[in-house]
Amino acid sequence: MARLAQTAGLTDVQQEILSTVRDFVDKEIIPVATELEHRDEYPQQIVDGLKELGLFGLMIPEEYGGLGESLLTYALCVEEIARGWMSVSGIINTHFIVAYMLKQHGTQEQKEHFLPRMAAGDIRGAFSMSEPGLGSDVSAITSKAVKDGDEYVLNGQKMWLTNGGTSSLVAVLVRSDEGHSPEEAAAKPHKSMTTFLVEKEPGFGEVRPGLTIPGKIDKMGYKGVDTTELIMDGLRVPADRVLGGVTGRGFYQMMDGVEVGRVNVAARGCGVAQRAFELGVQYAQQRHTFGKPIAQHQAIQFKLAEMATKVEAAHAMMVNAARKKDSGERNDLEAGMAKYLASEYCKEVVEDAFRIHGGYGFSKEYEIERLYREAPMLLIGEGTAEIQKMIIGRRLLEEYRFQG
Ligand SMILES: Cc1cc2nc3c(=O)[nH]c(=O)nc-3n(C[C@H](O)[C@H](O)[C@H](O)COP(=O)(O)OP(=O)(O)OC[C@H]3O[C@@H](n4cnc5c(N)ncnc54)[C@H](O)[C@@H]3O)c2cc1C
């Protein structure tokens, strides 16, 4: 049978990596995912397996001990992993964003200090922009850093850190209005933000003097992976832990990270949608009504046709966005479109698979129940649908400027 979501033009190395990951997903993730998710249990054994496969260093350059692979390879691996369990892709995603930001913007000393241990999965990354009062509007960040000798003192509260408890390195975006009057800082909020590389012990409670991770947020889905708050109360960070060594660049560094993160969320949408299709198409051939398998009713066949078309379209857009970034070109338009389309289609495909399951889709015994609770997260993470449409719309007006 021809499988959905094939990718043309992959190298032998890419094909080998993907087949290894797919095998791992089928054997080590799918059989245990739903049970672990219902218990909200951290998948330590799976994470250890991913470490062994080298997935934490997939895109980290070889000189720092990684595999030096492309964004496309990474996104295709994420798609496979999310097909098994979306939470596992969440465990590597923030790590990947922080490693990417270090690779692109870190000082030589910061790269040498963090990247080899990140490639081995011994240091794991989280990134933190959101606060209790803001998510979409990053320019409204209120957490603040003030210089004190060779250190900065950070105060404020952060919200929604994926891997906030299990990580040992958090890239935190705060205001640092150095060199700006309060009026200038208010007028140009993007230019007065800085990313700090904050090292900490994994775990909960006071994980470093001045830094508290209160506990896990109880979520409707996307369980297993920890999502937390982060409280900075007089947290002292050395000046050499400013990402790139210069203050005022944090907003742009974070947006660069989020842009590749969007391809990643699109890939997750593709993976979850593929799994929902697989579950729907299997169930439709097993369940009989009115004397035949429900797959033989045209209404159900049409549903399957729509689902498969959406899986193919989302995959194609995700691959296009990843390839554009790999070619060194700006990809914000393509990444925004891919993230928007893949997350919306994912929600629709999951809902159709749920409907195909009839009443059993509502039972916790069926995997689709988990997918139904997971898909909505993709509508929100790395920028909501409205934010993607704002990015897409702005770029379209740049490209199609009226010349009259
Ligand atoms: C499980 C989970 C994990 C997360 N992990 C992380 C993480 O690791 N790090 C991190 O920093 N953040 C993380 N987030 C936060 C996430 O990025 C934000 O939730 C998201 O950006 C939306 O922000 P918000 O929740 O504050 O919604 P708001 O910004 O308050 O938006 C509320 C609604 O208003 C809409 N809206 C907002 N502004 C506009 C506008 N100008 N025009 C039209 N509509 C608008 C939005 O689309 C949305 O529908 C996570 C969130 C969740 C749920």
UniProtKB/TrEMBL annotation:
Cofactor needs: FAD
Pfam families in the cross-refs: Acyl-CoA_dh_1, Acyl-CoA_dh_M, Acyl-CoA_dh_N
Location of the Acyl-CoA oxidase/dehydrogenase middle domain: 126-233
Gene Ontology molecular function terms on file: oxidoreductase activity
Domain (Acyl-CoA dehydrogenase/oxidase N-terminal): residue spans on this chain: 11-122
Residue intervals of the Acyl-CoA dehydrogenase/oxidase C-terminal domain: 248-397
Alphabetical list of InterPro entries matching this protein: Acyl-CoA_Oxase/DH_mid-dom, Acyl-CoA_Oxase/DH_mid-dom_sf, AcylCo_DH-like_C, AcylCo_DH/oxidase_C, AcylCoA_DH/ox_N, AcylCoA_DH/ox_N_sf, AcylCoA_DH/oxidase_NM_dom_sf
This protein's UniProt keywords: FAD, Flavoprotein, Oxidoreductase
Enzyme Commission code: 1.-.-.-
Family assignment from sequence similarity: Belongs to the acyl-CoA dehydrogenase family.
Protein name (database record): Acyl-CoA dehydrogenase family protein
Species this chain originates from: Streptomyces cellulosae
